[in-house]
Design goal:
heterodimer; A: alpha/beta; D-Maltodextrin-Binding Protein, domain 2; 5-stranded mixed sheet; two-stranded parallel ribbon; 6 helices; 7 strands; B: de novo design (two linked rop proteins); Heat Shock Protein 90; 3 domains; 69% helix; rod-shaped
Chain lengths: 179, 491
């Protein structure tokens, strides 16, 4: 199983190197129109405003969303927030972060919770607005919405030091078939 | 002693009544309209006063409504929203659906924002220290509850129901109880304020009613006094008129009886053959003629005055030369007045402009002035008659005919009354100077009917100047009214 995970990681790294480079340099402040257009098609990782974390690495993000980490550095319990199945944002997350299909995802959490490898079961919400409100109400919550759905009630954290408006941001929806 | 005191009191009351009568007499001269005007002014004042009082009471009631009733409604709303905040939080406990939980959390936060705004509004409008203290305490307790509510909501959304319930029982319930007590205290404070304001309004209402009764009593009293005063003024006026008429009758009787007695005696002497010589007969004839002329003059004067009073008179107006009128008057005076030492001086300006008027009426007016000047001019009457143009008048030039004597003059206090019909000065009556009291009123009526006026300047013991002011005919083409009604008919 672990070997399989290692293989998957190698494949994901190759995909990232070819498509989305997480190590690409940060853009200067003030995004260009093209960058803005790109940011509208990016997924923002949002946390509660009281959360002290501002930046996570892509790997840390994966660990968190896979439910393999239970608490934030400030001691708050992590609560994962997912959109319902079939939502474009969820598809992008499954592809980029989880690198799983829906059934793999369900199986991962069922199995993980049973074996104790997964500490957190994700909460499922119907809409990006619901996700945002959930994150606003729960200090340890982490979720994702389109960058255009972000407002001041939540905080967007950097992934590998990049924000959704940055060109080399890891969670871009551009180029993916989103329905 | 008692009799003396009562006499003094009666004297005081009598002098007060005299003062009132004097006042009423003065007021009566300008008719009772003045008194009615005063009553109207007082009534208007009362109405304004009552309206002001009612409006003040109305404003007070509105303030109570705004301050207490709306305040109570606001507190009721605060209580409801606070309950809503807690109820929505507890509803979130009843479901595992995260979407519903988020919706309940949203409802709870919306309600808590309304409560926070309401508390802020209450603090903004707090006027007393107790209101401010209570508002601050409520604000503090509400903030404490919200912190606990946030923890409970977070636990519910995380799925830690047991933890949420523990939080709520340990902190949320006592904290919300404190908020509820604070709101009850605010409500009680509003109740107390409303009660005290209601008492103020009740007091103000009683005060207004008392004022209203007082003012109405005063108005009633004032109206009664005014009616009494009007009636008394009318009665005094009627009494005065009756006295004047009695005096007139007595005077006329005397004026008629004296010539009649002379005529009768003369006729008796002639009939008895006492008068035989031709010279004596001529003298008696002259006496009878003069007395008859005097009688005729007197009767004419009375009839003339009566006709002017009844408004049946007519003037025939035409352009007149003033010197011609004066000549006629002087000629008539010389024929009728047989006074051995009478001196008449004339000062007539040349080129006097024409006037418009009735020649007979104006002659009658000047004749009356001349007769008076002779009658009251002392033992050696010296009369000056002047005619001149007065250009000092505001709007128009006038021809003035003044008759000046150097006789007994008129006291200043008598001057306002000398144009009253039948009025005779007590001093003149005492001096046995005969007259009817109609000469000057008649002259004044004629002057005013001609569009002019009659003025007098007099000094007691020095003499008097009566001046007839008549308007000048402006242009030769000026239309002349042929007949003017409400004037005097001349034969």
């Amino acid at each position: 199983m672990r070997r399989l995970a290692g293989v998957l990681r190698i494949v994901a790294a190759a995909v990232l190197l070819l498509g989305v480079s997480p190590n690409a340099p940060l853009h200067a402040a003030g995004a260009s129109p093209q960058a803005e257009s790109a940011s509208e098609q990016s997924l923002a990782i949002i946390v509660n405003q009281s959360n002290p974390v501002d930046n996570v690495s892509f790997q840390e993000l994966r660990t968190i969303f896979l439910g393999e980490r239970s608490h934030w550095p400030n001691g708050r319990r992590i609560t994962l927030v997912m959109l319902e199945a079939g939502q474009p944002e969820r598809k992008v997350m499954l592809r980029i972060i989880y690198r799983m299909t829906e059934s793999d995802f369900s199986r991962h959490f069922l199995q993980g919770l049973f074996t104790g490898e997964v500490f957190v079961s994700p909460k499922t919400l119907a809409s990006p607005v619901g996700v945002r409100k959930f994150v606003f109400n729960v200090p340890g919550a982490i979720g994702y919405v389109r960058a255009s759905d972000v407002d001041s009630t939540v905080k967007v954290i950097r992934v590998d030091g990049r924000l959704p408006e940055d060109k080399d941001y890891a969670l871009r929806m551009t180029g993916h078939s989103v329905k | 002693m008692r009799k003396r005191l009562s006499r003094v009191a009666r004297g005081g009351a009598h002098s007060s009544l005299q003062l009132i009568d004097g006042f009423l007499h003065e007021v009566g001269r300008y008719s009772s309209t003045l008194l009615l005007l005063m009553v109207f002014c007082v009534e208007t004042g009362v109405v304004v006063f009552v309206i002001r009082d009612l409006r003040a009471a109305d404003r007070e009631v509105q303030r109570i409504y705004a301050g207490s009733v709306l305040g109570l409604r606001q507190i009721g709303e605060l209580q409801y929203q606070a309950q809503e905040t807690r109820r929505s939080t507890l509803y979130a406990l009843t479901t595992n659906d995260s979407n519903l939980q988020v919706e309940y959390a949203d409802q709870s936060r919306a309600a808590d924002r309304r409560v926070t705004d309401g508390i802020h509004d209450y603090l903004t409008h707090a006027r007393t220290p107790s209101e401010t203290d209570l508002g601050k305490r409520l604000e503090y307790d509400w903030s404490a509850y919200l912190k606990l509510r946030d923890e409970v909501l977070a636990s519910i959304l995380e799925g830690s129901i047991k933890e949420a319930v523990d939080f709520d029982l340990a902190g949320g319930v006592p904290s919300f109880d404190r908020v509820r007590r604070d709101l009850d205290d605010v409500k009680r404070l509003y109740d107390e304020q409303a009660s005290s304001r209601l008492a103020i309004v009740d007091q103000a209402s009683r005060r207004s009613a008392a004022r209203l009764v007082g003012v109405l009593c005063f108005t009633l009293l004032f109206a009664s006094v005014s009616v009494w005063a009007i009636q008394r003024a009318k009665m005094l006026s009627a009494l005065k008129l009756a006295k004047l008429q009695m005096d007139f009758v007595a005077s006329v009787s005397h004026e008629l009886r004296t010539p009649l007695a002379v005529i009768c005696a003369s006729a008796q002497n002639i009939a008895d053959g006492v008068v035989e010589e031709k010279e004596q007969l001529a003298k008696y004839g002259s006496v009878i003629r003069n007395q008859t002329r005097q009688l005729t003059e007197l009767v004419n004067q009375i009839l003339l005055f009566a006709s002017t009073k009844e408004g049946r008179t007519h003037y025939v107006l035409r352009p007149l030369q003033v010197p011609q009128i004066i000549d006629a008057v002087l000629r008539n005076t010389r024929e009728t007045v047989e006074h051995p030492t009478l001196t008449v001086e004339q000062q007539i300006e040349s080129d006097l402009p024409e006037i418009i008027g009735d020649s007979s009426a104006i002659a009658q007016c000047v004749q009356n002035l001349m007769s008076n000047a002779v009658k009251y001019g002392g033992d050696h009457p010296r009369v000056t008659i002047r005619a001149f143009v007065d250009r000092s008048h505001d709007h128009r030039d006038e021809v003035c005919v003044s008759v000046e004597d150097r006789g007994i003059g008129i006291d200043g206090s008598e001057i306002p009354h000398i144009f009253d019909p039948f009025y005779r000065s007590p001093a003149v009556a005492a001096a046995q100077i005969h007259g009817t009291g109609l000469g000057l009123p008649l002259a004044k009526n004629i002057a005013e009917a001609m569009g002019g006026r009659l003025t007098v300047v007099s000094k007691l013991g020095v003499g008097s100047v009566f001046t007839l002011h008549l308007p000048i005919r402006k242009r030769a083409s000026e239309p002349i009214p042929v007949v003017q009604t409400d004037s005097l008919t001349r034969p």
